[in-house]
Structures are given as structure tokens and as C-alpha cells.
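Board notes, transcribed. Complex of a protein with iron/sulfur cluster.
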Amino acid sequence: MSIHAPVNPQKVPLYADVPPEDWNDWRWQMRHALRNAEDLGQVIPLERMEKKGMEESLQKFRMAITPYYAALIDQNREDGPIRAQAVPNVLELVERPSDLLDPLSEEGDSPVPGLTHRYPDRVLLLVTRVCAMYCRHCTRRRTVGQEDSHGRPEEIDMALQYISSHEEIRDVLISGGDPFTLSTERLESILSRLRAIPHVEIIRIGSRTPVVLPQRITPAFAAMLSRYQPLYVNTHFNHYKEITAESAQACANLANAGIPLGNQSVLLKGVNDCPRIMKKLVHELLKIRVKPYYIYQCDLSMGIGHFRTSIAKGEQIIESLRGHTTGMAVPTFVVDAPGGGGKIPVMPNYVLSHSDRHTVLRNYEGVITTYTEPDEPYSECHCELCREASPSQENGVAGLLQDDRLSLEPTVLQRRRRNGSS
Ligand code: SF4
């Protein structure tokens, strides 16, 4: 199949008679999502044992596959990348000692239901538990898809009230579930209330609908979003086979409305853990005006251990991209720290050594080069922002670089307890 070929429902007997006006209607697609092994068996061949395993795993995490995404599944391959992301697998029942219910500790940093406030200036606002498709690798599977429910109005009110009363919040990331599964009116009401908060500078939305339900992104819907600029959309393509005429059009509708687009992939064993697949994916993304933004190391969520790769695989992928292709095509590979430490970038080491005079670096070809440092490397910054800032404003390691503090220490340090200095 060529990458930009439209998905042909005619090739699936179940959808052969669906009129185009239904097929292209996002609500029809959601109403007809495949939700059990019997439904799915009408679209792709399923072995008896596979069906049994699927039914068992559906006891723990529900299934929903839009007819559009189901029609993308390769009928002849049991290990295809679309199928692996959509179809339940008995391996989801395997729980490993390292598996965690809430691997990113989002609930630990939640001052009111549906809102995570971890970083000083930004929050995560979860507005629904519904997605058009329930990805088998979902990190929020503890809540997403457990029941088809959007955020309750009183919860949204509480979250917006919290944002309104915290002037340090300048960036709100709306996620879920998938926020684009809300009705246009309901989503617009949340956006307009957020825009009315003077200190909210930017709004970001995470949505997989351009990938699994591109019919949702009509020009009218994109125009509604564009009324709440600056607004950014991050989507979630994991494989170049997800880029079709329909998903390309969905992204074009957003880009034409002036909405910048980024992509967050998850590194998944058997789906995209190959430098060549990732390179083709990032090239195809740029062609549809989507900037590759992150590759996430797969989280430690319950029942998705079979999707995990080593961290080294992500480093290998970045090694194969940086310098080998356009810089804009290279995403940041991150490990979202278990326990709530946030995203930690990981990349191959390009700095080989230092002296006062030289920094020794290597490039993607293996060429080793030196950069000569300036004669007086230290110079204090006197810009107006530094003059106004208090020394303690920088957190973490950045703070150590800027002020007179000597160290960062854990709150509990046995050595300090022993010598009585804490
Ligand atoms: S779209 Fe996102 S939130 Fe929804 S199931 Fe997939 S990974 Fe989870």
C-alpha cells in the first residue's frame, strides 16, 4: 500500500455497503467501533486460541477500534504494526514485578480530580476517559477506557477554578482519554473558559484522533480550535503505515487553520523499534507538516511489558537519525521517570572530553573534532531579566549553575542524620 492511499472500506466485507457519508462521519465511526472478539472476527481472521486470549484480556482493559483503523490492519500478517496496537493480546494478562498502576504518579501530584500539577508553570488537565481507539500500550489504562465517561462538569469546574487561582500556571495541556472525542460544543466551552484566564498563555491538546479517527478533524472543527490560539496539537503516530490520505488531510486541516502540530511516538517492540521504520516515520510526518517531537520509552504500566524495549534501543534510533537526516526530523527521546520525576532526555554522547581550552566532540560520522573555548569563558550576565530575578528562582541543577549553592541533596540523607546536621 502506498503511504498516502485512502483507506478502502470496500476491501472489508463488513463495511462494503457503508455509504461514504456514514464512513466519513466521525460519530458513525465511534458508534460502530469494534468492541469484542466477535465483532473483530468479522474484520480480520482470528484463530480460536487468539479469540480466547482476547476475551480474557478484555476482562481487564476494554477494546475499541474504529472501523477506519480496523480497515488499516493487514489481513495477512498476525504481527503487523496496526494490529499490535489495536488488538487485545493474552500477554496483557502478564503482570511483572516492575509493573505499576500509575507509573508516572499522576495521582500523587493531583490537587483536584482530573488535574496534575507537577511542574511549576504548567498543568495536565484530563477532560475525558474516552478514546476513539483504546491503544493496547496505553500508559493511562488504569482509568482510560475503564468506562466511557467524560469528565464530570463539577470536576472540570474545580480544575478550571484551580488554574484560575494559580497565577504561575502559564501552560495547560488538555488530555484524557482523547479530548477530541468530546462534542465540539463541550470542548469549545472548556477552551473558552481557559482563554478567559489571563495568565494562561498557551493551550496544548494531546489527541490521537488524527491517527485513528481522522474524520473528526473537519475544517469547521479546526476553525473552532483556531479561535483559541496560541494552541498546539500533539498527536501520536507510531508507524508510517498510519499515515494515509485521511490522516494527512486531518493534519492539513489543522495546519491550514494555523495550528502547529507535533508528534509523540511511543517506542514499541515489534511495532517501531527499528531505526529504518522510525526514519521513514519522521520523514513522512514532516511531509504532512507534523514536527516529530518526542519518542517516549514505553512506561511501566500494568500488562504492557511485552511492548517494552531496552532504553538502548531508543538511543540507537537517535544515533541513526541525528546528522543522518534533517535536524527538524529528529525528536527528543525521553524516559518519563517512574514515580513522577518527569521526562528525562536520553541521547548518545557527543561530547568526548574537555579541558579549559578545548571541548572534544564527535559527529554522526565518527569524526572527532575540537572546539576552542573563549579566552575568558566566564562572564556574568547583566541582562534585564537576570537583574530582576532573585537568585533562588532556578530549580534543580540549573540553579546550581547560576547561584552560590553548593549541592542538591535528598531530604533523607543517612550521612546528615549520623553527623546530626539535619
Ligand atoms: S489515545 Fe492515548 S489515552 Fe487513548 S488509549 Fe491511546 S494512548 Fe491511551
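The chain has three domains: 9-77, 115-345, 384-418. Residues 131, 134-135, 138, 140, 144, 176-178, 208 surround iron/sulfur cluster (CB under 6 Å).
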